[in-house]
Design the sequence.
């Protein structure tokens, strides 16, 4: 059975070009970039090139890119590193809809003497800037607000947030793992101080990430040891994966237009046809300020895990914000923060596309969803099949 | 991804007995849309007071649907009294097991069955399970938690959450759940278990008898007393320990369990592996 992969906000296929670029760096070009010999030196050159490619994707200087092991490490480095650099400031600001990589870290830090303000969102998943303005004080070390939401795809007004944060003298971090590679980012015209990147969200492998650190930003290193990454992140460079991230960044730039035209059109058609063919549905989140690849649709009276498993039987991979899929009993914190009724939260379905999706994929999903929803509604004591 | 058995997957993909009965003898409704799962279970009896038809409707995940489907198959052909003997573990076993986190699906099946039979018998089951709401997120009372703890011999808050959802939301009720577990088993189970010495020194007869007495006093008696029972040590013959249960314990249907599960286990743990407890009735 062919897999129709529509869960690209969870992880993506590693691009074949990326795999090809990486392979020589395992058994042939395995030198240490820090070595004095030519064998290592030739690898160092390629690491420099990869760094430049990542920098080009977000239009920053290569020296502002630090490679990490994943998006979570980038987030931890940014937040802990900033707190370490401003020991007198004991306050953080974030949003209620952040990824656990930020939210759980910030909540954990409240046990170590830090205060945390969690900004609410409205029913469209948008930040209220007034609340942000009130939350930041002289005591605020860092404001960490995501660029785009992983569940709904809603894009925050990052530059407005950043302008506000900078006017109050705090450091601005954004977890941009869902945005990088999907929408154009330009650090040369930005207020962002720190920005997290995750390789496996943009067709590089799992196990590689990066942190953009604006020149002049004070940041205490998170991992100490050798001099790698100019002392900002110790540990021998993960060369094959760095090469892979570089290649993926190059490809993302090349395909940026495709992502925002063709992929967006696929998403729009998918969303429209599902809404038209199933009753009692709703699209969660602002549909204007949104990533081009993501839709989050709720089906009333049915439960998300059941939808996912029946879709999976048809070879379709998606995800849900339902409680039963989270491994906990709490349904999506993002959808609940938006005030979406519980009856819709449990039946939410996230479909997230990539440049590898085709018209046939969309046809397949559109064809399979209505019978699955109808069938589950027939079993449900609340639902009427339509 | 959940590790579901083939049988569970089959009951999810091809659920048996979905739907409603026009003129049912009993209907049980449990759960709600807000909780994330709900089950409506109904049955009809034949002329011999046996369940001839059982149907269900479920809003929920795969294991909730499969548990309900399994339940309908299990009750058909049974009298209501026989059906009541089915436990949530029986439902889970029927499906070849459920992931721990999904045990509450089998509990929901059991509750719907009880509610339907209670309705048939004209009993107000809500009254029986009334009590103080402990978990405000999922509306679970102390009575419900206590029952599931005792029936399934649960020992941790995480267990209770897996079986009832209680404590799985905002988590503020966790200390209360801990207290209910402690009361249900007797506080003694909550005390940190004393580590056995790596090598037991052989005990003299007097030491051994003293240790048995101490263990009963410290590890067993307080637990029985919280349930209104008590225990007397009558005699010790070699590895046999003769006891008699008193008070509420004598009439308790789980006294067998108490004996093996608590008294013998504790004596084996703290005194010697070969102890056999014999009850003098």
Sequence:
């Amino acid at each position: 059975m062919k897999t129709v992969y529509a869960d690209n906000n969870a992880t993506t296929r590693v691009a074949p070009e990326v795999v090809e670029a990486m392979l020589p760096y395992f058994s042939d070009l395995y030198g240490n970039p820090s070595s004095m010999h030519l064998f290592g030196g030739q690898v160092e050159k390629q690491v420099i090139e990869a760094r430049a490619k990542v920098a080009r994707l977000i239009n920053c200087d290569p020296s502002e890119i630090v490679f990490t092991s994943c998006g979570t490490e980038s987030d931890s480095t940014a937040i802990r590193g900033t707190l370490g650099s401003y020991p007198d400031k004991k306050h953080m600001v974030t949003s209620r809809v952040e990824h656990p990589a930020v939210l759980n870290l910030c909540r954990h830090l409240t046990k170590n003497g830090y205060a945390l303000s969690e900004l609410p969102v409205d029913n469209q998943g948008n930040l209220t800037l007034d609340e942000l303005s009130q939350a930041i004080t002289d005591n605020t070390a860092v404001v960490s607000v995501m660029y785009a939401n992983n569940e709904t795809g809603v894009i925050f007004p990052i530059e407005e947030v950043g302008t506000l944060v900078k006017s109050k003298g705090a450091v601005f971090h954004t977890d941009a793992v869902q945005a990088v590679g999907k929408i154009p980012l330009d650090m040369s015209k930005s207020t962002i101080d720190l920005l997290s990147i995750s390789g496996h969200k943009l067709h590089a492998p799992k196990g590689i990430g990066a942190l953009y650190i604006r020149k002049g930003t004070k940041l205490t290193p998170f991992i100490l040891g050798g001099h790698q990454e100019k002392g900002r992140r110790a540990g021998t460079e993960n060369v094959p994966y760095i090469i892979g991230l570089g290649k993926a960044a190059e490809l993302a730039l090349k395909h940026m237009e495709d992502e925002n035209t063709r992929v967006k059109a696929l998403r729009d058609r998918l969303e429209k046809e599902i809404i038209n063919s199933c009753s009692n549905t709703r699209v969660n989140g602002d549909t204007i300020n949104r990533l081009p690849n993501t839709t989050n649709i709720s089906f009333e009276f049915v439960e998300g895990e059941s939808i996912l498993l029946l879709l999976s039987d048809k070879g379709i991979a998606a995800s849900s914000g339902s409680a039963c899929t989270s491994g906990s009993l709490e349904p999506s914190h993002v959808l609940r923060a938006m005030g979406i009724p519980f009856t819709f939260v449990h039946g939410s379905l996230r479909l997230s596309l990539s440049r590898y999706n085709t018209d046939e994929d969309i046809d397949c999903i559109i064809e399979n969803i209505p019978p699955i929803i109808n069938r589950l509604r027939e079993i449900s004591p609340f639902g009427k099949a339509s | 991804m959940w590790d579901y058995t083939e049988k569970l997957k089959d009951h999810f993909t091809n659920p048996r007995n979905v739907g409603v009965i026009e003129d049912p003898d009993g209907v049980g409704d449990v759960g709600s849309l807000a909780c994330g799962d709900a089950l409506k279970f109904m049955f009809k009896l034949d002329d011999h007071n046996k369940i001839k038809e059982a149907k269900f409707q479920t809003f929920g995940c795969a294991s909730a649907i499969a548990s309900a489907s399994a339940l309908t198959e299990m009750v058909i052909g049974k009298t209501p009294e026989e059906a009541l003997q089915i436990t949530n573990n029986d439902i889970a076993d029927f499906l070849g097991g459920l992931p721990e986190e999904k045990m509450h699906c089998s509990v929901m099946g059991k509750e719907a069955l009880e509610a339907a039979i209670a309705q048939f018998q004209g009993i107000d089951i809500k009254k029986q399970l009334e009590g103080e709401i402990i978990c405000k997120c999922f509306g679970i009372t102390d009575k419900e938690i206590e029952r599931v703890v005792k029936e399934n011999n649960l020992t941790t808050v995480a267990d209770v959450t897996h079986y009832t959802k209680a404590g799985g939301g905002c988590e503020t009720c966790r200390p209360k759940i801990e207290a209910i577990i402690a009361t249900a088993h007797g506080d003694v189970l909550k005390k940190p278990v004393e580590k056995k010495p790596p090598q037991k020194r052989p005990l003299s007869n007097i030491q051994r008898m003293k240790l048995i007495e101490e263990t009963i006093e410290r590890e067993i008696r307080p637990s029985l007393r919280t349930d209104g029972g008590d225990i007397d040590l009558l005699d010790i013959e070699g590895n046999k320990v003769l006891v008699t249960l008193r008070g509420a314990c004598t009439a308790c249907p789980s006294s067998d369990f108490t004996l093996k599960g608590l008294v013998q286990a504790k004596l084996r743990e703290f005194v010697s592996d070969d102890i056999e407890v014999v009850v003098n009735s």
Q: What stands out?
A: The domain at 255-379 of chain A is CATH 3.90.1150.10 (Aspartate Aminotransferase, domain 1). The CA atoms of residues 86 and 141 of chain A lie 6 Å apart. The mean pLDDT of chain A is 95.
